[in-house]
Amino acid sequence: MKFIKDLLFFEIETTGHDSDKDNIIQLSAVLLDKDNLLEKNNFNTYVRVSYLDSVILQHSKLLHTDYETIKKSPKVYDAIKKFKDKFGKDLLLATHSVGNILFLKNAFKKAVVPFEYDMHVIDLWTLGYIYTLNYGLKKMPTFNTFVDYFKLKQKYPQNAMEKVRLEAEIFRKIIKEA
């Protein structure tokens, strides 16, 4: 299957579940070629949301990385600017959750960077739901359901880069079987 635009799968790790109050602390993405769905480019950054040592330490533990990495990470403005500069806007966003879109839009807003992406988004959860109906899976189509179903390995569940690559692989497998 060929797509009209390249697909940018992205994944985030956050300080909580409320996109209005909580912050992105890791933003990762893989750009898939529209013709063959192979990875063309990628992006990964941690985002520092505080100067407080205790908060930095808490985020480093959550993300399984060291304190210095988080302390030296860019603030949201720089992270979002780099993200947008790297990929541009002529692509189709893809993720496993509508909530991720809300967090990304809010991050762009906080960074005072225009969110100029196509409003059509590939939602892996919805695609997975249809897949589960057609292939008789009797489980909710969560990310973990598909990791198990396709026998993929996940080492660090809170690592957005690992997760986004797995999401891209799940997408390829679903598209291949469709």
Brief characterization of the structure:
The chain is 43% helix and 17% strand. It has 178 residues and is an alpha/beta fold. 31% of the residues are buried.
Outline the secondary-structure elements:
Layout: E1 7-14, E2 24-32, E3 39-46, H1 53-62, H2 67-71, H3 76-87, E4 92-95, H4 98-110, E5 122-123, H5 124-135, H6 143-149, H7 160-177
Parallel strand pairs: 1-4, 4-5
Antiparallel strand pairs: 1-2, 2-3
Can you tell me about this structure?
This protein has helices at residues 53-62, 67-71, 76-87, 98-110, 124-135, 143-149, 160-177, and strands at 7-14, 24-32, 39-46, 92-95, 122-123. With 178 residues, the protein is of the alpha/beta class. The protein has one domain (7-177): Nucleotidyltransferase, domain 5, CATH 3.30.420. The chain has a five-stranded mixed beta sheet with strand order 3-2-1-4-5.
Major sheet description: 5 strands, mixed
CATH architecture: 2-Layer Sandwich
What name is given to the CATH topology?
Nucleotidyltransferase, domain 5
* Order of H and E elements: EEEHHHEHEHHH
Number of domains: 1
Overall helicity: 40-55%
Mean pLDDT: 93
Radius of gyration: 16 Å
How much of the sequence lies in strands comes to: 15-25%
Strand order of the largest sheet: 3-2-1-4-5
The CATH superfamily bears the name Ribonuclease H-like superfamily/Ribonuclease H
SS class: alpha/beta
